[in-house]
Amino acid sequence: MKTQELTYLTPENIEQFIAAALIEDVGEGDFSSLASVPADAERQARLIIKDDGILAGVDLARHIFRQVDADLILDVKIEDGSKVKHGDIGLIVTGKAQSILKAERLVLNCMQRMSGIATYTDQINQRIAHTKAKLLDTRKTTPNFRMPEKWAVAIGGGVNHRFGLYDMIMLKDNHIAYAGGIEQAINKTRQFLQDNGQKLRIEIETQNLDEVREVLRVGNIEVIMLDNMSVEDMTTAVELIGGRFTTEASGGITLETIKEVAETGVDFISVGALTHSIKSLDISLKAID
């Protein structure tokens, strides 16, 4: 796990997430297990890794097993952020068989997707490791699954951007259009923050060099987003900004294109595909006879 403070990972948030997921999956009861497995049966199961990648969701699995049944015993073999290969055993869980089965699908759904995200994050980070650029996630997440997805990005070595609409101001093209232009959007935002006693950082999107120049003229922001610009224009924009503001590159950046983008000198690169277009790692939970 990287050193960034993941303030959204509170015991309350984790508990609420698991509770909602169990309501969705278990409902009135896991009748398959209740019907076929003796209530007093004690068993073991092991988490088997079937892909190469970065493991994520181990700590969340601890919370899930504990919330389902506090008497379940976990023997964790591999921790979050570790490289894994096909055939590795991530953990062994021991306890009431019905409880293991009740937790199984939620644990796997979380760990498979989180591990896929962490793996892709790590792959992208390797492409930009020779630059100063840091990899950011976005709000392009699965509804009600944002916490695990952003957690997985952090486990994979990425940096969490704002968690939601409430913890940072980001003025994008539609905000600017509705406000009447870049200058109006910035000035109205600054006035709003002052009137409401809010202390939030302001980021503004630019789509060409003229917009970058206008933002530089107006000022009063912290971050300039360079959205869907060519590598050439991005390089020029970074030179124009000259370190006066933090820079973020964005817009359809992929594993294949990110190296060139990072080499323009931007501070951050946001990649929505970290959370919206990943392949889950193949992981299973198998009973031990």
> Treating each run of at least 4 consecutive H or I residues as one helix, how many helices?
11
The portion of residues assigned to helices is: 40-55%
First-to-last CA distance: 34 Å
The structure class reads alpha/beta
Strand order in space, largest sheet: 6-11-10-9-8-7
Biggest sheet record: 6 strands, parallel
H/E series, N to C?
A: HHEEHEEEHEHEHHEHEHEHEHE
**Average pLDDT level:** 96
Instruction: Provide the β-strand percentage band.
Output: 15-25%
Rg, nearest Å: 22 Å
User: Low-confidence parts lasting 5 or more residues at pLDDT below 50?
Assistant: none
The 3D shape can be described as elongated
- Count of DSSP E strands? 12
Tell me what the structure shows.
Helices cover 44% and strands 19% of the residues. The longest helix has 32 residues, at 97-128. β8, α8 and β9 form a beta-alpha-beta unit. The protein starts with 10 loop residues before the first helix and ends with a strand. It has eleven helices and twelve strands. The strands form three sheets. A six-stranded parallel sheet has the order 6-11-10-9-8-7. Strands 3-5-1-12 form a four-stranded antiparallel sheet, with helices on one face. Strands 2-4 form a two-stranded antiparallel sheet. The chain is of the alpha/beta class and 289 residues long.
